[in-house]
Amino acid sequence: MSHNDHSMRTPMGKVRYLGSAKSGTTHVWHQRLTAYALLPLSIFFVILILSLIGKDYNSARAILAAPYVSILILLFIGSGIYHMQLGMRVIIEDYVHAHGSKTALLVANTFFSVCIGISAAYAVLKLSLA
Questions:
Q1: Which residues contact 5 (CB under 8 A, 6 or more apart)?
Q2: What pTM value is reported for the model?
Q3: Is residue 112 a part of any domain in this protein?
Q4: Which residues contact 3 (CB under 8 A, 6 or more apart)?
Q5: Burial of 76 from C-beta contacts in 10 A (0-12 / 13-18 / 19+)
Q6: How far apart are CA 13 and CA 110, in angstroms?
Q7: What are the beta bridge partners of residue 18?
Q8: Is 116 exposed, middle or buried (0-12, 13-18, 19+ CB in 10 A)?
Q9: How far apart, in whole angstroms, are the C-alpha atoms of residue 88 and residue 105?
Q10: What CATH code is carried by the domain that includes residue 38?
């Protein structure tokens, strides 16, 4: 949106991210929700990594294989990957103006995000279910 588009919105519309057609900008809300989810999940993840320092392989594996740890790691991965994908989508939409390039980059962004997410989830599940 240009600067003029923003000035035409009501203050409530700005807070709700509503344009003149009253349609919400869903990805902005999703990005905020994932950011809020990532706050405690990131703290958990850092504490988890710090707790693994000095542990032998079997001890570290036992900690990482605990159900609540695996679930929190999967939530961290899912939220982080989705947050990353949304952020890159906004950058691509804002700065790539050629339609073909924009479409190709949006597809590549989604494909990359899905591949990284599935790979990370597979690693966690393999560790926790082995």
A1: 19, 20
A2: 0.78
A3: yes
A4: none
A5: buried
A6: 29
A7: 24
A8: middle
A9: 9
A10: 1.20.1300.10
What whole-number distance in Å separates Cα of residue 114 and Cα of residue 102?
Answer: 18
Instruction: Locate 88 and state its tokens.
Output: 């890159």
Give residue-wise pLDDT tens across range 1-25.
444 544 555 555 555 555 444 434 7
Mean of pLDDT values over 38-57? 97
C-beta of residue 37 within 8 angstroms of C-beta of residue 75: yes
Decide: residue 26, CB within 10 A, 0-12 exposed, 13-18 middle, 19+ buried.
Answer: exposed
Q: Establish if 6 belongs to a structural domain.
A: no
- Backbone torsions φ then ψ of 9, nearest 5 degrees: -90, 150
Name the amino acid, one letter, at 94.
Answer: D
Q: What is the dihedral of CA 8, 9, 11, 14, to 10 degrees?
A: -130
